[in-house]
């Protein structure tokens, strides 16, 4: 009995898309003269819009909640962030920021990258001592 059920189920699953394709080909073109590709793209985008509508509404509510605090943050920190963005040429050579227990934020350079040419050298010549 099990030997018969599996082939029948597979045939049923494989024949379902064929029926859908035949029905789509039989429908007459609409009055706008759009091609099947245009109608398919339109249906795809409409379905995508319907699927994304709840997520976009949640995002809109979230932005209304944090909008005022984000605006205040950007007005205070915007100039400082712009200065940092002008100084750093390539963000890919830095690791993720790390927040220390005292609240300091450290952004370390990745160990496998070379320092920029104009970076100061902190090396001390051999034999010289530094008083701290």
List the secondary-structure elements in sequence, H or E: HHEE
Strand content: under 5%
Helical content class? 55-70%
Shape: elongated
Count of beta strands:
2
The structure class reads: mainly alpha
Overall pLDDT score: 76
Distance between the first and last residues' Cα: 88 Å
Q: Which radius of gyration do the C-alpha atoms yield?
A: 31 Å
- Biggest β-sheet: strands ordered side by side in the sheet: 1-2
Summarize the main sheet: 2 strands, antiparallel
Give the uncertain stretches in residue-range form.
none
Number of helices: 2
Question: Which features characterize this protein?
Answer:
132 residues; mainly alpha; two-stranded antiparallel ribbon; 2 helices; 2 strands
Explain the layout of strands and helices.
Elements: H1 2-26, H2 36-87, E1 98-99, E2 105-106
Antiparallel strand pairs: 1-2
Could you walk me through the main structural features you see in this protein, from its secondary elements to its overall organization?
- The structure is a single chain.
- The protein is mainly alpha-helical and 132 residues long.
- The protein contains two helices and two strands, in the order ααββ.
- Strands 1-2 form a two-stranded antiparallel ribbon.
- β1 and β2 form a beta hairpin.
- It starts with a helix and ends in a 26-residue tail after the last strand.
């Amino acid at each position: 009995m099990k030997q018969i059920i599996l082939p029948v189920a597979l045939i049923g699953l494989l024949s379902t898309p064929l029926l859908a394709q035949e029905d789509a080909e039989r429908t007459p073109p609409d009055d706008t003269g759009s091609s099947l590709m245009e109608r398919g793209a339109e249906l795809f985008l409409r379905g995508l819009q319907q699927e994304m509508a709840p997520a976009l509404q949640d995002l809109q509510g979230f932005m209304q909640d944090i909008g005022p605090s984000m605006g205040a943050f950007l007005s205070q920190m915007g100039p400082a962030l712009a200065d940092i963005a002008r100084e750093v040429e390539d963000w890919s050579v830095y690791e993720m920021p790390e927040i220390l227990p005292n609240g300091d934020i450290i952004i370390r350079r990745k160990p496998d990258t070379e320092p920029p040419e104009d970076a100061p050298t902190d090396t001390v010549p051999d034999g010289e001592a530094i008083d701290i």
